[in-house]
Amino acid sequence: MQPLQPEQLRRVCEESVFNFQSTQEITQLEEIIGQDRAVTAIEFGMEIDSQGFNIFALGPTGAGKTSIIQKFVQRKAKEKQLPDDWCYVHNFEEPHKPKSLRLHASRGREFRNDMDNLINEMKGEIVQVFEREEFENEKTLIMEKLQNEQNNMLTELSQKSAKEGFTLQRGPTGFFMIPVKDDHPISSEEFARLPDEEREKLEEKGKELRQELNRTLRSIREQGKKSREQLKELERNSVFFAIEHPIEDMKEKYGDREEISDYLNAVKEDILENAQKIIASGKKQSDQPAFLPQMMEGRQEAILDRYRVNLMVDNSNSEGAPVVVEGNPTYQNLMGKLERQARLGMLVTNFRMIKPGALHRANGGYLIIEADHLLRNPFSYQSLKHALKERRIRITDMSEMLSSISTAGIEPEPIPLEVKLILIGNPLMYYLLFNLDEEFRELFKIKADFHIFMERNKENTKQYARFLASRCNQEGWRHFDRSGIARVVEFGSELVGDQTKLSTRFSEICDIAREANYWASKNGNGRIGRREVDRAIAERDYRNNRIEEQIHEMIEKGDLFIDTEGAIPGQVNGLSILSLGDYTFAKPSRITARTYVGREGVINIEREVKMSGPIHNKGVLILTGYLNGRYGEDKPVSLSASLVFEQLYEGVEGDSASSAELYALISSVSGYPIKQGIAVTGSVNQRGEIQPIGGVTQKVEGFYNVCKARGLNGENGVLIPKSNVKNLMLKQELVRAVQENKFHIYPVETIDQGIEILTGVEAGSQDKDGKYPEGTVNRAVNDRLAEFAKCWKSYRMLEEEG
After folding, report:
1. How many CB atoms lie within 10 A of CB 357?
2. Is 194 exposed, middle or buried (0-12, 13-18, 19+ CB in 10 A)?
3. Alpha helices, H only, 181-257
4. DSSP secondary structure letter of residue 485
5. Tens digits of residue pLDDT in 122-157
6. What CATH number was assigned to the domain covering residues 6-34+451-544?
7. I need a surface site. Which of 415, 479, 558, 712 has the fewest CB within 10 A?
8. Which CATH fold topology does 565-796 show?
9. Angle at CA 685, nearest 5°, toward 684 and 686?
10. DSSP state of 761
11. Pairing of strands 366-370, 420-425
12. The pLDDT of residue 728
């Protein structure tokens, strides 16, 4: 088996594919690259207006979902017309239920300003009406007429009572009829000394006069009521003429909206009813009693504020449909909130304290939210779904949702909702919501699936260059020369671990580009070249690889047993991947196997102590199937074996070491030693075929670093699955080592190919009689297993004989 050639270890991006010298010479990237499937889904979801066709964009972090969606949505939003403005106004019939008003786009601010001007204008007009001489004269006539009528009625009653021997007197509590004798009122003592007949007569006359007095007082009250009604009518008529024209002008201006005309009629009626309160609200606090100002302040402001407009949605400065990105989707930030103001020890609110949420601002347009942020906020997800299903925005006080006790407040009228919602999350979140929440399926019928890679072809390579040109212009970086672009393209393949693919995780591409720009500035270079990009990648690795270097140091000191020379039976170097969040590297591990007579099969020590996962356990069980199928056709496989990762303390998962474990078993049974300078990775199936694994680049580089530290002897190398060759994007240093025959990488397809490389002995194939040739590994394994079977049979016979 021949090792790989240097050109197979890394796909280099040739600078000749670029027909320019730097990114400064090319046009910026306007379109979205590498996400055709997701873009098609988003475009369809934005065009269709049916209910429930909201969009969920799923993909791994760093795939550029948010930036791509924002860019795409903003472009589409400019093609749509401006949505209507919305405002809240006072409800004169039910004050605790503010009314919503809809106005044409950009007219909400105009309506609010017109109402403010109307309030200021009519306040001055009303004050002037009540200060005019004509009004005072009319008011005086009414009051004088009332006074004269009251005086006449009292005079007439007084004269009648005098004829009957009584006098009419006014006291602190009202009018009284008192008997008179000799032109002097009779006191109670004198009245008691009168003869019974005379006293009874006076009492009878007094009773009649008191009845007459009551009738007179009743007439006086009726006259007062009529006069007050006349005064009120006078005030109403005077105020009416003062406000009629301004309100009629506004009705004519906003006559295309019937609800606004109705509202202005209600405003006019309320002003006519509360003219005196409006005048009082214009007085200075110094004109009022000292104990009233603070108490009256709120009431006076409320009288005027009830005619103002709370503009919730103002699209006057917008272009096209709104695009809102809500980064903190709490319930109040989404649905709106009711603010409160402390007043005389109480918290009060009104329609002017209603504040809009993201749904209000995005109404008629697009709302973009990160799904995990939405789900972390209580009530947000459920309230958002309810609003989408009802197609209305209902503002509910948060305190009522958190408390079982209802308090007096306001209930704003719901606003109709027309919005396209785009949630952004990872695939796991999408599938969990899809399977666990039936409403989610009804509301998010469009799935925009983002890839983490795209094909590495000539066109996409040039698109990478245009992307870098766009970022250089947007962020003010130095421009990349052709060598720098080529290195970034290679980095894109390194990220995805495939020579035929390019990463679409443009956030990581941008990070490396930023760092390369920094090193270019430090070096005083006017362009960013391959050297600066290499420096950025190396510095990033250096910041993150402390643990990796510590492990290598332990191997060099002998604290971790890893042999890179010689040959040992039943022992092989396996390669596992360790991920520390932002950094992934390979850790060599010694795998040993011990075999002996028995029927327990292959015992995985990690499984026995619960240090291995189910996938690794499955891989070990496959080994039993391979051994029985390969060598148990003519005899029972009477084998007991133990497998273990030596000095492994963190647990193991995955089946990428299953081929290494099988090599160790075959070596232990056959007695042929395995070369310790070669490490192994790859999974195996029951037929002995080597299957691809992940992280092949990191695994090869990890073992190379260990061998380099101990000194490369020309016999070091790694066995990898042949199907993983396309995933190799090895460092230039390692490629040079291969070119100089200091390190070797062997692609294998079967266990037989691998064992030949590891032992230097032919594996051997069965002849027509099912026999393996002498001197081959398979012959040695088959013969040894036959001996095990005989030993086991003899042992069982002796055991039965006692």
Report:
1. 25
2. middle
3. 188-193, 196-253
4. H
5. 777 777 776 777 777 777 887 888 788 878 888 887
6. 1.10.8.60
7. 558
8. Ribosomal Protein S5; domain 2 (3.30.230)
9. 130
10. S
11. parallel
12. 95
